[in-house]
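Ticket #396: bound-state structure for alpha-D-galactopyranose.
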Amino acid sequence: MSIDTATGHVNFQTFSPGDMRNVRRFFAPGRVNLIGEHTDYNGGSVLPVALELGTWLTVRPRTDGVLRFFSTGFEQQVEVLVDDLSFNPNHGFANYPKGILTTLANMGVGLSGGDFFYHSNLPSGAGLSSSAAIEVVTGYAAVALAGYPLAFDELARAAQRAENEYIGVQCGIMDQFSVTLGKQNTALLLDCDSLHTEYIPLDLGDFMLVIINSNKQRSLTESAYNERRQECERALAVLQKQWTGLNFLAHLSEVQWEASQATLTEPVLRRRVRHIVTEQRRVVDAVATLKVGNLVEFGRLLNASHSSLRDDFEVSGWELDTLVAAAQGAPGCIGARMTGAGFGGCAIALVSRERVRDFRLHVTDQYAAVTGLVPSFYESGAGAGVREVTERMQNL
Ligand code: GLA
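RESOLUTION: The complex was predicted; output attached.
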Protein backbone atom coordinates (compact mmCIF):
# COMPACT_ATOMS: atom_id res chain seq x y z
CA MET A 1 0.00 0.00 0.00
CA SER A 2 1.56 3.33 -0.99
CA ILE A 3 1.79 6.41 1.18
CA ASP A 4 0.65 9.87 0.11
CA THR A 5 3.74 12.02 0.55
CA ALA A 6 1.68 15.19 1.05
CA THR A 7 -0.29 13.91 4.04
CA GLY A 8 1.88 11.07 5.26
CA HIS A 9 -1.14 8.80 5.07
CA VAL A 10 -2.34 6.05 2.85
CA ASN A 11 -4.92 7.84 0.73
CA PHE A 12 -8.32 6.65 -0.31
CA GLN A 13 -7.37 6.13 -3.94
CA THR A 14 -4.57 3.71 -3.10
CA PHE A 15 -6.93 1.80 -0.79
CA SER A 16 -9.86 1.83 -3.20
CA PRO A 17 -8.90 2.85 -6.75
CA GLY A 18 -11.59 3.77 -9.26
CA ASP A 19 -14.27 6.22 -10.24
CA MET A 20 -14.88 8.75 -7.49
CA ARG A 21 -18.43 9.67 -8.46
CA ASN A 22 -20.22 7.30 -6.10
CA VAL A 23 -17.76 7.83 -3.26
CA ARG A 24 -19.18 9.68 -0.24
CA ARG A 25 -17.63 11.18 2.86
CA PHE A 26 -18.99 11.53 6.39
CA PHE A 27 -17.79 13.02 9.66
CA ALA A 28 -18.57 12.32 13.32
CA PRO A 29 -17.07 14.37 16.16
CA GLY A 30 -15.62 13.26 19.48
CA ARG A 31 -16.99 14.74 22.68
CA VAL A 32 -15.96 16.08 26.06
CA ASN A 33 -18.31 15.99 28.98
CA LEU A 34 -18.45 19.29 30.87
CA ILE A 35 -20.11 17.79 33.93
CA GLY A 36 -22.32 14.85 34.95
CA GLU A 37 -19.84 11.98 35.08
CA HIS A 38 -20.98 8.38 35.52
CA THR A 39 -24.51 9.69 35.91
CA ASP A 40 -25.76 8.52 32.49
CA TYR A 41 -26.21 4.85 33.39
CA ASN A 42 -27.78 5.97 36.66
CA GLY A 43 -30.62 7.76 34.90
CA GLY A 44 -29.15 11.21 35.58
CA SER A 45 -28.27 14.26 33.52
CA VAL A 46 -25.09 14.94 31.59
CA LEU A 47 -23.74 18.04 29.83
CA PRO A 48 -21.41 17.01 27.00
CA VAL A 49 -20.11 19.05 24.08
CA ALA A 50 -19.42 17.64 20.60
CA LEU A 51 -15.93 18.61 19.44
CA GLU A 52 -14.56 19.97 16.19
CA LEU A 53 -12.10 17.07 16.30
CA GLY A 54 -13.43 13.78 15.00
CA THR A 55 -13.36 10.93 12.50
CA TRP A 56 -13.88 11.12 8.74
CA LEU A 57 -15.16 8.14 6.81
CA THR A 58 -14.79 7.95 3.05
CA VAL A 59 -16.81 5.11 1.60
CA ARG A 60 -17.27 3.44 -1.77
CA PRO A 61 -20.27 1.12 -2.04
CA ARG A 62 -19.65 -2.39 -3.38
CA THR A 63 -22.05 -5.04 -4.64
CA ASP A 64 -19.92 -8.18 -4.18
CA GLY A 65 -20.70 -8.81 -0.50
CA VAL A 66 -17.21 -7.70 0.61
CA LEU A 67 -16.53 -5.14 3.35
CA ARG A 68 -13.05 -3.63 3.56
CA PHE A 69 -11.96 -1.33 6.38
CA PHE A 70 -8.81 0.76 6.61
CA SER A 71 -7.75 3.20 9.32
CA THR A 72 -4.90 5.65 8.75
CA GLY A 73 -4.31 5.89 12.50
CA PHE A 74 -3.96 2.15 13.07
CA GLU A 75 -2.55 1.47 9.58
CA GLN A 76 -4.57 -1.72 9.55
CA GLN A 77 -6.71 -3.21 6.81
CA VAL A 78 -9.43 -5.74 7.51
CA GLU A 79 -11.59 -7.56 4.96
CA VAL A 80 -14.72 -9.55 5.78
CA LEU A 81 -17.91 -10.75 4.10
CA VAL A 82 -21.20 -9.02 4.85
CA ASP A 83 -22.60 -12.31 6.14
CA ASP A 84 -19.69 -12.92 8.53
CA LEU A 85 -19.43 -9.92 10.82
CA SER A 86 -18.59 -11.85 13.99
CA PHE A 87 -16.23 -10.24 16.53
CA ASN A 88 -12.60 -11.09 15.87
CA PRO A 89 -9.93 -10.03 18.40
CA ASN A 90 -7.40 -9.69 15.55
CA HIS A 91 -9.57 -7.12 13.76
CA GLY A 92 -8.69 -4.28 16.17
CA PHE A 93 -10.42 -0.99 15.26
CA ALA A 94 -12.53 -2.74 12.59
CA ASN A 95 -14.59 -4.46 15.28
CA TYR A 96 -16.27 -1.07 15.96
CA PRO A 97 -17.65 -0.62 12.42
CA LYS A 98 -18.41 -4.34 12.27
CA GLY A 99 -20.34 -3.97 15.54
CA ILE A 100 -22.60 -1.16 14.37
CA LEU A 101 -23.11 -2.82 10.97
CA THR A 102 -24.17 -6.00 12.81
CA THR A 103 -26.63 -4.04 14.95
CA LEU A 104 -28.04 -2.26 11.90
CA ALA A 105 -28.28 -5.51 9.93
CA ASN A 106 -30.40 -6.90 12.79
CA MET A 107 -32.64 -3.83 12.37
CA GLY A 108 -33.02 -4.53 8.65
CA VAL A 109 -30.37 -2.10 7.33
CA GLY A 110 -28.18 -4.33 5.20
CA LEU A 111 -25.30 -3.41 2.91
CA SER A 112 -24.09 -5.30 -0.15
CA GLY A 113 -20.49 -4.36 0.61
CA GLY A 114 -18.24 -1.32 0.76
CA ASP A 115 -14.75 0.09 1.12
CA PHE A 116 -14.58 2.05 4.38
CA PHE A 117 -11.62 4.39 4.86
CA TYR A 118 -11.19 6.14 8.23
CA HIS A 119 -9.05 9.09 9.16
CA SER A 120 -9.25 10.77 12.57
CA ASN A 121 -7.70 13.66 14.45
CA LEU A 122 -9.09 12.38 17.75
CA PRO A 123 -6.63 10.64 20.03
CA SER A 124 -7.86 7.07 20.40
CA GLY A 125 -8.58 5.61 23.82
CA ALA A 126 -8.16 9.01 25.52
CA GLY A 127 -11.72 9.42 26.75
CA LEU A 128 -12.87 11.70 23.91
CA SER A 129 -15.27 9.09 22.49
CA SER A 130 -13.21 7.91 19.56
CA SER A 131 -15.17 4.63 19.68
CA ALA A 132 -18.58 6.35 19.60
CA ALA A 133 -17.32 8.50 16.71
CA ILE A 134 -16.31 5.52 14.56
CA GLU A 135 -19.51 3.63 15.36
CA VAL A 136 -21.79 6.59 14.71
CA VAL A 137 -20.04 7.72 11.51
CA THR A 138 -20.23 4.15 10.16
CA GLY A 139 -23.86 3.77 11.15
CA TYR A 140 -24.79 7.13 9.65
CA ALA A 141 -23.02 6.24 6.39
CA ALA A 142 -24.64 2.78 6.24
CA VAL A 143 -28.08 4.28 6.75
CA ALA A 144 -27.39 6.90 4.06
CA LEU A 145 -26.09 4.30 1.58
CA ALA A 146 -29.02 1.96 2.25
CA GLY A 147 -31.48 4.85 1.93
CA TYR A 148 -33.06 3.77 5.21
CA PRO A 149 -34.81 6.41 7.29
CA LEU A 150 -33.46 6.26 10.85
CA ALA A 151 -34.01 8.99 13.42
CA PHE A 152 -30.89 10.42 15.07
CA ASP A 153 -31.79 9.08 18.51
CA GLU A 154 -32.34 5.59 17.06
CA LEU A 155 -28.89 5.75 15.49
CA ALA A 156 -27.40 6.77 18.85
CA ARG A 157 -29.15 3.90 20.61
CA ALA A 158 -28.03 1.44 17.93
CA ALA A 159 -24.42 2.57 18.47
CA GLN A 160 -24.82 2.08 22.23
CA ARG A 161 -26.18 -1.44 21.66
CA ALA A 162 -23.18 -2.22 19.45
CA GLU A 163 -20.86 -1.08 22.23
CA ASN A 164 -22.79 -3.02 24.92
CA GLU A 165 -23.51 -6.23 23.06
CA TYR A 166 -20.78 -6.54 20.44
CA ILE A 167 -17.77 -4.80 22.02
CA GLY A 168 -18.79 -5.75 25.58
CA VAL A 169 -18.49 -2.37 27.31
CA GLN A 170 -21.57 -1.58 29.40
CA CYS A 171 -21.44 2.17 28.61
CA GLY A 172 -24.37 4.55 29.02
CA ILE A 173 -25.92 6.65 26.27
CA MET A 174 -24.04 9.96 26.70
CA ASP A 175 -21.27 9.52 24.14
CA GLN A 176 -23.46 8.29 21.29
CA PHE A 177 -26.01 11.05 21.88
CA SER A 178 -23.47 13.86 21.93
CA VAL A 179 -21.63 12.56 18.87
CA THR A 180 -24.94 12.27 17.01
CA LEU A 181 -26.83 15.34 18.24
CA GLY A 182 -24.07 17.88 18.98
CA LYS A 183 -24.66 21.43 17.82
CA GLN A 184 -22.17 24.26 17.28
CA ASN A 185 -21.51 26.59 20.22
CA THR A 186 -23.78 24.65 22.54
CA ALA A 187 -23.59 21.97 25.19
CA LEU A 188 -26.17 19.19 25.15
CA LEU A 189 -28.15 18.76 28.36
CA LEU A 190 -29.38 15.18 28.20
CA ASP A 191 -31.67 13.51 30.71
CA CYS A 192 -30.49 9.92 30.36
CA ASP A 193 -33.76 8.49 31.69
CA SER A 194 -36.31 10.31 29.53
CA LEU A 195 -33.74 11.09 26.79
CA HIS A 196 -35.08 14.62 26.77
CA THR A 197 -32.50 17.03 25.34
CA GLU A 198 -31.94 20.75 25.65
CA TYR A 199 -29.24 22.77 23.93
CA ILE A 200 -27.45 25.11 26.34
CA PRO A 201 -25.60 28.03 24.66
CA LEU A 202 -21.92 27.79 25.52
CA ASP A 203 -20.70 31.34 25.89
CA LEU A 204 -17.46 31.24 27.82
CA GLY A 205 -16.72 34.96 27.44
CA ASP A 206 -13.05 35.67 28.20
CA PHE A 207 -12.44 32.03 29.02
CA MET A 208 -11.91 28.95 26.91
CA LEU A 209 -12.13 25.23 27.38
CA VAL A 210 -8.75 23.51 27.24
CA ILE A 211 -8.63 19.74 26.87
CA ILE A 212 -5.56 18.08 28.34
CA ASN A 213 -4.58 14.51 27.59
CA SER A 214 -2.77 12.86 30.51
CA ASN A 215 -1.17 10.50 27.97
CA LYS A 216 -1.46 7.83 30.59
CA GLN A 217 -2.26 4.56 28.86
CA ARG A 218 -5.63 3.61 30.24
CA SER A 219 -5.61 0.21 31.82
CA LEU A 220 -8.40 -1.99 33.14
CA THR A 221 -10.80 0.72 32.02
CA GLU A 222 -13.45 -1.68 30.80
CA SER A 223 -13.41 -3.98 33.82
CA ALA A 224 -13.27 -1.09 36.33
CA TYR A 225 -16.06 0.71 34.45
CA ASN A 226 -18.27 -2.38 34.46
CA GLU A 227 -17.45 -2.84 38.17
CA ARG A 228 -18.69 0.71 38.96
CA ARG A 229 -21.93 -0.07 37.14
CA GLN A 230 -22.39 -3.20 39.20
CA GLU A 231 -21.73 -1.29 42.44
CA CYS A 232 -24.37 1.25 41.44
CA GLU A 233 -26.84 -1.54 40.70
CA ARG A 234 -26.16 -3.13 44.10
CA ALA A 235 -26.61 0.21 45.88
CA LEU A 236 -29.87 0.80 44.02
CA ALA A 237 -31.17 -2.63 45.05
CA VAL A 238 -30.44 -1.81 48.72
CA LEU A 239 -32.03 1.65 48.53
CA GLN A 240 -35.13 0.31 46.81
CA LYS A 241 -35.97 -1.52 50.05
CA GLN A 242 -36.46 1.89 51.63
CA TRP A 243 -37.59 3.87 48.59
CA THR A 244 -39.93 1.67 46.61
CA GLY A 245 -40.43 3.20 43.20
CA LEU A 246 -36.85 4.48 42.97
CA ASN A 247 -35.79 3.47 39.46
CA PHE A 248 -32.39 5.11 39.23
CA LEU A 249 -29.76 6.29 41.72
CA ALA A 250 -29.71 9.75 40.17
CA HIS A 251 -33.39 10.13 41.08
CA LEU A 252 -32.57 9.94 44.79
CA SER A 253 -33.07 13.45 46.15
CA GLU A 254 -30.60 15.01 48.58
CA VAL A 255 -33.24 14.76 51.33
CA GLN A 256 -33.82 11.06 50.60
CA TRP A 257 -30.07 10.51 50.55
CA GLU A 258 -29.70 12.04 54.03
CA ALA A 259 -32.48 9.76 55.24
CA SER A 260 -30.81 6.66 53.73
CA GLN A 261 -27.78 6.51 55.97
CA ALA A 262 -29.08 3.63 58.08
CA THR A 263 -30.12 1.61 55.03
CA LEU A 264 -26.96 1.86 52.98
CA THR A 265 -24.29 0.75 55.39
CA GLU A 266 -21.54 -0.52 53.07
CA PRO A 267 -18.92 2.29 52.98
CA VAL A 268 -17.93 1.79 49.33
CA LEU A 269 -21.54 1.88 48.16
CA ARG A 270 -22.21 4.98 50.29
CA ARG A 271 -19.36 6.79 48.55
CA ARG A 272 -20.59 5.75 45.11
CA VAL A 273 -24.11 6.98 45.83
CA ARG A 274 -22.89 10.24 47.35
CA HIS A 275 -21.04 10.95 44.10
CA ILE A 276 -24.14 10.30 42.00
CA VAL A 277 -26.44 12.42 44.18
CA THR A 278 -24.03 15.36 44.42
CA GLU A 279 -22.99 15.15 40.75
CA GLN A 280 -26.61 15.21 39.62
CA ARG A 281 -27.04 18.40 41.70
CA ARG A 282 -23.90 19.89 40.14
CA VAL A 283 -25.28 19.35 36.63
CA VAL A 284 -28.43 21.27 37.52
CA ASP A 285 -26.35 24.04 39.12
CA ALA A 286 -23.89 24.13 36.21
CA VAL A 287 -26.69 24.66 33.70
CA ALA A 288 -28.09 27.50 35.83
CA THR A 289 -24.65 29.14 36.11
CA LEU A 290 -24.02 28.84 32.37
CA LYS A 291 -27.40 30.38 31.61
CA VAL A 292 -26.51 33.48 33.63
CA GLY A 293 -22.85 33.51 32.56
CA ASN A 294 -21.44 32.94 36.06
CA LEU A 295 -18.25 31.23 34.92
CA VAL A 296 -16.45 31.48 38.24
CA GLU A 297 -19.18 29.40 39.86
CA PHE A 298 -19.12 27.03 36.89
CA GLY A 299 -15.36 26.57 37.49
CA ARG A 300 -15.98 25.84 41.16
CA LEU A 301 -18.45 23.12 40.17
CA LEU A 302 -15.82 21.55 37.88
CA ASN A 303 -13.38 21.42 40.81
CA ALA A 304 -16.02 19.90 43.09
CA SER A 305 -16.90 17.31 40.46
CA HIS A 306 -13.27 16.22 40.27
CA SER A 307 -12.97 15.85 44.05
CA SER A 308 -16.08 13.69 44.08
CA LEU A 309 -14.83 11.49 41.21
CA ARG A 310 -11.47 11.15 42.96
CA ASP A 311 -12.65 10.50 46.52
CA ASP A 312 -16.13 9.02 46.23
CA PHE A 313 -16.38 7.36 42.84
CA GLU A 314 -12.63 6.55 42.69
CA VAL A 315 -12.22 6.67 38.93
CA SER A 316 -9.46 9.24 38.48
CA GLY A 317 -6.08 7.79 39.45
CA TRP A 318 -2.74 9.27 40.38
CA GLU A 319 -1.80 10.74 36.99
CA LEU A 320 -5.18 12.40 36.39
CA ASP A 321 -5.22 13.78 39.94
CA THR A 322 -1.73 15.22 39.43
CA LEU A 323 -2.78 16.72 36.11
CA VAL A 324 -5.96 18.27 37.48
CA ALA A 325 -4.15 19.66 40.56
CA ALA A 326 -1.53 21.22 38.23
CA ALA A 327 -4.31 22.74 36.10
CA GLN A 328 -6.25 24.06 39.08
CA GLY A 329 -3.13 25.83 40.33
CA ALA A 330 -2.07 27.17 36.94
CA PRO A 331 -2.30 30.82 35.80
CA GLY A 332 -5.69 31.83 34.44
CA CYS A 333 -7.50 28.61 35.44
CA ILE A 334 -10.83 28.88 37.26
CA GLY A 335 -11.74 25.20 37.32
CA ALA A 336 -10.62 21.78 36.11
CA ARG A 337 -11.61 18.16 36.34
CA MET A 338 -11.17 14.77 34.71
CA THR A 339 -13.65 14.03 31.92
CA GLY A 340 -15.09 10.77 30.58
CA ALA A 341 -14.81 7.34 32.16
CA GLY A 342 -11.53 8.15 33.94
CA PHE A 343 -8.65 5.79 34.84
CA GLY A 344 -6.44 7.94 32.58
CA GLY A 345 -7.53 9.84 29.50
CA CYS A 346 -8.31 13.54 29.51
CA ALA A 347 -9.06 16.47 31.79
CA ILE A 348 -10.75 19.75 30.96
CA ALA A 349 -9.92 23.20 32.30
CA LEU A 350 -11.60 26.57 32.06
CA VAL A 351 -8.81 29.05 31.34
CA SER A 352 -8.62 32.79 30.69
CA ARG A 353 -7.96 33.22 26.95
CA GLU A 354 -5.10 35.60 27.69
CA ARG A 355 -3.32 33.15 29.96
CA VAL A 356 -3.57 29.96 27.90
CA ARG A 357 0.14 29.97 26.99
CA ASP A 358 1.24 30.36 30.62
CA PHE A 359 -1.32 27.79 31.65
CA ARG A 360 0.09 25.20 29.28
CA LEU A 361 3.68 25.82 30.35
CA HIS A 362 2.79 25.56 34.02
CA VAL A 363 0.75 22.37 33.61
CA THR A 364 3.40 20.73 31.43
CA ASP A 365 6.19 21.52 33.92
CA GLN A 366 4.30 20.44 37.01
CA TYR A 367 2.81 17.31 35.50
CA ALA A 368 6.03 16.15 33.86
CA ALA A 369 8.06 16.80 37.03
CA VAL A 370 5.83 14.51 39.07
CA THR A 371 4.82 11.81 36.57
CA GLY A 372 7.49 11.88 33.88
CA LEU A 373 4.68 12.14 31.30
CA VAL A 374 4.22 15.02 28.87
CA PRO A 375 0.60 16.12 28.46
CA SER A 376 -0.99 17.05 25.10
CA PHE A 377 -3.37 19.98 24.71
CA TYR A 378 -6.31 20.33 22.33
CA GLU A 379 -8.30 23.45 21.66
CA SER A 380 -11.72 22.83 20.21
CA GLY A 381 -14.94 24.74 20.19
CA ALA A 382 -18.32 23.03 20.42
CA GLY A 383 -18.94 21.51 17.00
CA ALA A 384 -21.85 19.87 15.20
CA GLY A 385 -22.84 16.20 15.30
CA VAL A 386 -22.51 13.50 12.65
CA ARG A 387 -23.06 14.63 9.06
CA GLU A 388 -22.27 14.02 5.41
CA VAL A 389 -19.41 16.13 4.06
CA THR A 390 -19.16 14.71 0.54
CA GLU A 391 -19.31 18.13 -1.08
CA ARG A 392 -16.18 19.13 0.81
CA MET A 393 -14.08 16.17 -0.41
CA GLN A 394 -10.56 17.17 -1.27
CA ASN A 395 -7.29 15.35 -1.79
CA LEU A 396 -8.88 11.97 -2.08
C1 GLA B 1 -17.78 6.61 29.26
C2 GLA B 1 -19.10 5.97 28.88
C3 GLA B 1 -20.28 6.93 29.10
C4 GLA B 1 -20.24 7.52 30.51
C5 GLA B 1 -18.86 8.04 30.86
C6 GLA B 1 -18.74 8.46 32.30
O1 GLA B 1 -17.50 7.67 28.41
O2 GLA B 1 -19.07 5.58 27.53
O3 GLA B 1 -21.49 6.28 28.84
O4 GLA B 1 -20.69 6.58 31.44
O5 GLA B 1 -17.84 7.07 30.61
O6 GLA B 1 -19.55 9.56 32.54
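RESOLUTION NOTES: The first strand starts at residue 24 and ends at 33.
TICKET STATUS: resolved
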